[in-house]
Structures are given as structure tokens and as C-alpha cells.
Specification:
mainly alpha; elongated
């Protein structure tokens, strides 16, 4: 049987009185039952003082002296439950109940441990044993009902709830659980009946009205859903479930004025998490047609939201996206800059601001704020890419190379690594350092030999310096196998053929390039003119050079060609 803590005082007195004599102590040590109890009470003392590891040592020592020390097993099971060591907790709970099957506390503890270990049939068996000893214990009945519910035997679970109610009267928790079980069975009318009983017995709780409203909504009866949600809000005007349910019902009924009116209440309701409101707003952002039709209402909603919670940074990203969708780019730029300059470290805001300034070609601002973001998030490779792009557009190629090289240690994917190596190669080419450029293209191709962009650029730049033209032609042929109708890649091949002196082949390929959109490129038009010139078609060559000029080509070479006689 479970020992009483008061026994510790008796043991202490016994030890004190026996300590005067070595022989008496030796005689005491032979009494293993008493020594087991002494270790048990010391373990109990350690347990209540919070030193559970020491408690385990003493309790195990108690069991080694008396394997039937049921109380020691029970406390060990409690300790292991606290440590979330379910196997040990279950083992000790079972041993406690085995050695003292008449102890209801041990039985309940064992059954609960079986439940936690998902051994539901065994738990039901123990609960059944306990109920035969204590038929008035409501906790046992309820636990059995819950287990039947988990096992999917909803009918049996409801039957036990009814049995409980007939014995012990109506209980709010019992009715709520019974309603949930009817919902699991999809017996909606029965669930509504239980809900109305709850409203009758507990009229001040808006939860029951809101749940009935939700069931009516699932039945497709939005008018009744609206009615019951309004009743719930009469009790508690800010009750979240009723507000949300009412707004959804108004939306389904296409009563949009009422829908947005309730939404404004929801977005001002402190009982509803702002993160949930943000998720709600994201539904608008994802529905393009709805957004376009109701953007004035949505604009009012988001502006009220941010005015109500001006310091909640979680709202900033959706407000920024909203401004972007409305095309208010100046307002968006001002908003983002203000938040970032005031100390916000939100990566989403940084990305939106940097992307916006890239889009509007404010490259100095892009570079500056990308640097600030990199200082905060040094491992976000995308920030380095944005900064390098801005620097490249400013023709600051040395700085571009420096930033891209700084990004390489943080790159985890081969595709991104290839892109960065390729961009470093492009930057070196822009500096006129072709050997360095070609070295980086080779490194990129060692990672991915079939990268189209690298193969095209590498082969084209080789043609410009008249180096390794045969190698370049092989590379561009690999590209064209994958994208045979790309005007840029066709232009590269045609230009290589031109450099190799194969003018007729170059003309054929270049005509394909023009057919697939090359006539929109001043470079391709100039190249075609050059090929025709080599074929002695001077007048047609000048025609294409003029077309290149009209497309914006103002290079010295094109002017010389046009003035050629």
C-alpha cells in the first residue's frame, strides 16, 4: 500500500535511537523492508524538493531492497511522466498497479499512461476494472467515452455520455463533447439539438450560439447562420467566432457592404491575433478579380488596420503589397523607406524596397539598402545578387565582382553558383579582362556543362576576340539543340560563322534569327548588314545598317558603315 509521509518522522526517530550502538545499527540494516521504506521516503523528499535525478536513485534503491514497493513505482512513474519518458513512466505505473491492484490512484495512473502511449484497448480494460470498484467515479466514465471517440466508435462514446447524464445530471462539458461527437458522425441536426439545449441551460455563453451558427452554415443555411451569430454578438459584441462567422455568411450571401462592415470590426478586435488578420488579408491579395472589384473597400480596411496598430511590424508587408497592387509606387517607396530608416529589420520590407528601386532604376538607392540588408542578413545570397545587379548597371564592374565573390561562400545550390560565376565572367569581360572572364566561364561550366546562358555568352565573347572559334561553335550548337528558335543564340552562331569566313552559312542562320524576333535588335540588324557586305550585297547591307541606327545604335562603327562609299 501507498505509504504516508508521516512515517518519515517515525523512521527518523528510530534511526536516532539506534545510532548509539553499532550492533543495533547492524541489526537495523538487516531489516530490508525498513531500509526500503527509508530509501523510499528519502526519494520522496528529493522528488518534492525538485531534485528528480536524486529521487530516482533513492527510489530504485528502495525497489532493489523490496521489489514489491508499490509506492516507489508510483512516484517513479510520476517523475518519468514529467520528463516525458513515456516508456519508463508506463512500466513503473504498471508495476505499481500490479503490486497494489486495489489502489484506485495507481489504477487511474496506469490507465492514463496507457492512453498516452496509445494503447487504448488496454486502457479501456483498466478503466473497466476500476469502474466495477467505483461506479460513481465520473472521471473514469468520461475517459472511457473519450477513448471510444478516438477509436472511432462514436455511437459507444455517445452512449456512455448519455449514461453519465442519466446518472449524474446535465453537465456543460459533457454536452459539448457529445455535440462534437455528433459533428464527427455528420449528424448535424442532432448537433444543433444539443446546441440548443446548451443555449437553454447556459444562455450567457456566446460560444454555443456561434457554434450553432457554424453548423447552419455547413448545412447551407446562411440566413440562420446570420441570425445565430447576431444573437451571439448581442451577448458579447466582440466575440471573435461570431464576428468571423457572420462576415463569412454575409460574403456568401453577397451582402458585401455588411461583409466589409463586420471585417472592419474584426480588424479592430484586440481579441483576434493580428497574424490571423494578416492571413485573412492575404486571401484578398491572392484573389485578383475580387481585389480589383472591391479595392476601395480593401483600401479602407488596410488603412484602418495600420492606423489601429501603427507599431505592429507584421502588418507592414501586406500594406506594402497593397500599395504595389494599387500602383502607388511613390507612396510605397516612401512608406518602405520610412520604416527601414526608423530601424525596421524586416527582411520582407528590405526585399520589397530593393526590388522596387531596381524596377524604377534607382541603382544608388538599391545598392545602399542592399548593403544595409547584407549587414543584417549576411547569408541571404539574393541580397548580394540585387546589389551586384545595381552596381553592374552603374558600370562599376570592379565592385560588382567584389560583391559576387563575397556571396560565393554562402551559396548552397549549383544553379545559383553557376549564375554568380557567369556574372563575374560578364563583369571581367566588361572590364576588358577576357582571360579572367573565360576562366570564370570555364569554372561555371565545370559545375554545369549544359548551362545555356554561360555557353552562349562564352561562345559569343570568344568570337569577339577571334579565339577558339571552333570550340565556340561547338558550344553554341549545344545551346541551339535546346532552344533552336532563340534569335539571340542564332545570332551568336551566325556571327561565329562570319568570323570563320563562312558567309553563306552565316546568312542562312541570321535570316532565321531575324525570323524569330532578331529584327527588333539593333545588334542583330548590324550583324546581318556586315554579313551581306561580305557577300558584296552593299545596298542591302546599308539598308540593315540604317535599320540598326533607327533602332538606337549610335556607335562609331555604324556611322562609319553608313558613310562607306
Amino acid at each position: 500500500m501507498k505509504r504516508q509521509i508521516l512515517f518519515a518522522a517515525v523512521v527518523s526517530f528510530c534511526v536516532a535511537s539506534c545510532s548509539s550502538s553499532y550492533n543495533s545499527m547492524k541489526k537495523l540494516s538487516k531489516n530490508t523492508m525498513l531500509m526500503s521504506d527509508m530509501n523510499y521516503y528519502e526519494g520522496l523528499k528529493q522528488y518534492y524538493s525538485g531534485t528528480t535525478d536524486n529521487a530516482i536513485k533513492f527510489l530504485n534503491r528502495a525497489i532493489s531492497l523490496n521489489k514489491e514497493n508499490d509506492a516507489a513505482y508510483f512516484i517513479l512513474s510520476q517523475i518519468y511522466q514529467g520528463k516525458n519518458q513515456r516508456i519508463e513512466a508506463l512500466k513503473n505505473a504498471g508495476l505499481a498497479y500490479t503490486y497494489s491492484p486495489s489502489n484506485e490512484d495507481y489504477g487511474l495512473n496506469y490507465a492514463q499512461n496507457l492512453q498516452r502511449s496509445n494503447r487504448l484497448d488496454s486502457a479501456l480494460n483498466v478503466y473497466s476494472q476500476l469502474i466495477t470498484k467505483d461506479s460513481a467515479n465520473t472521471d473514469l466514465l468520461l475517459n472511457m467515452s473519450l477513448i471510444y471517440g478516438v477509436k472511432g466508435d462514436i455511437v459507444k462514446s455517445i452512449k456512455l455520455y448519455d449514461e453519465f447524464s442519466s446518472k449524474y445530471g446535465i453537465n456543460e462539458a459533457i454536452l459539448e463533447n457529445k455535440q462534437k461527437l455528433y459533428l464527427q458522425l455528420n449528424q448535424l441536426d442532432s448537433a444543433i439539438s444539443v446546441g440548443n439545449k446548451l443555449v437553454e441551460l447556459f444562455p450567457d455563453n456566446p460560444k454555443h450560439l456561434a457554434l450553432i451558427a457554424d453548423i447552419y452554415a455547413n448545412k447551407g443555411s446562411d440566413s440562420l447562420a446570420i441570425e445565430y451569430n447576431l444573437k451571439a454578438l448581442e451577448l458579447v459584441p466582440t466575440y471573435p467566432l461570431a464576428q468571423i462567422g457572420l462576415s463569412d455568411a454575409y460574403r456568401r450571401e453577397a451582402r458585401y457592404a455588411d461583409y466589409f462592415r463586420i471585417l472592419n470590426h474584426i480588424f479592430k478586435n484586440d481579441e483576434i491575433k493580428n497574424s490571423d488578420k494578416v492571413n485573412y488579408f492575404n486571401q484578398f491579395l491572392g484573389n485578383k478579380q475580387f481585389y480589383q472589384v472591391f479595392y476601395p473597400n480593401i483600401d479602407t480596411l488596410i488603412n484602418n488596420f495600420i492606423v489601429t496598430y501603427p507599431k505592429d511590424t507584421s502588418i507592414y508587408p501586406i500594406y506594402a503589397e497593397h500599395l504595389g497592387k494599387l500602383g502607388k509606387l511613390d507612396d510605397l517607396n516612401t512608406f518602405l523607406k520610412e520604416k527601414l530608416d526608423s530601424g525596421s529589420k524586416d527582411s520582407t520590407l528590405f526585399f520589397k524596397f530593393i526590388e522596387l528601386n531596381l524596377y524604377t532604376k534607382r541603382f544608388d538607392t538599391t545598392s545602399l539598402y542592399a548593403s544595409k540588408a547584407i549587414h543584417i542578413y549576411p547569408k541571404l545570397v539574393k541580397l548580394y545578387l540585387y546589389k551586384s545587379y545595381a552596381l553592374f548597371q552603374k558600370k562599376d564592374f570592379d565592385s560588382t565582382i567584389f560583391v559576387l565573390k563575397a556571396a560565393l561562400p554562402y551559396v548552397k545550390s549549383d544553379s545559383v553558383k553557376v549564375d554568380i560565376l557567369s556574372m563575374i565572367g560578364d563583369s571581367y569581360h566588361s572590364l576588358g579582362k577576357d582571360n579572367e572572364a573565360f576562366a570564370y566561364y570555364d569554372e561555371a561550366l565545370s559545375v554545369n556543362p549544359a548551362n545555356i546562358q554561360v555557353l552562349n555568352n562564352y561562345s559569343y565573347y570568344l568570337s569577339l576576340v577571334d579565339k577558339k572559334l571552333a570550340k565556340a561553335l561547338k558550344m553554341i550548337n549545344v545551346v541551339l539543340k535546346k532552344e533552336p528558335n532563340n534569335s539571340t543564340y542564332l545570332d551568336t552562331k551566325a556571327w561565329l560563322l562570319y568570323k570563320l569566313g563562312k558567309y553563306d552559312e552565316a546568312k542562312t542562320v541570321m535570316r532565321q534569327s531575324l525570323l524569330y524576333g532578331g529584327n527588333e535588335s539593333d545588334t542583330i540588324l548590324e550583324h546581318y548588314g556586315d554579313i551581306l557586305f561580305k557577300l558584296k550585297d552593299i545596298e542591302t547591307a546599308k539598308l540593315y545598317w540604317q535599320m540598326s541606327y533607327d533602332r538606337g545604335n549610335r556607335s562609331e562603327d555604324i556611322l562609319k558603315k553608313l558613310n562607306h562609299k
